[in-house]
Structure prediction request, 110 residues.
Amino acid sequence: MAIVEVDEESFQQEMNKAFAKENVLILKFGSEYCESCHALECELEEIDEELDNVSVLAIDTDESPEIAEKYNVYALPTMVIYGDRESIIYNESGVILAQDIEQVIKNKER
Prediction:
C-alpha cells in the first residue's frame, strides 16, 4: 500500500479505511519545505514495501494545522504509530530509521 496524503477533509475517512484492513497505522506529520520530513518519508516507503500490515498517512502541517494540533505536533517531522484504533504505541519527532520503525511495530505484536 502506498503512502496516502491526507488533509482535514479526508483524514478521518482514510483512518477508518486503514483500521478496517490493517493492524498498524502510521501518521507522518511534515511539511513540503522540511528536508528531514523527506528523509523520514524515504524510511516509511521502505517500511511500506516490507510490511503488509501497515498503512501510512502523510499530513502536511501547513495545510492541516487542526490535525497537527490534535496530536500536539510541535516539531517536524513527527511520527505517530497506532497499534490499533485505541492505542498509540509510538509518538516522537525526528527521523527514525526503517529498521527502528519495524522494531517498534514488531514489539507491538508480542
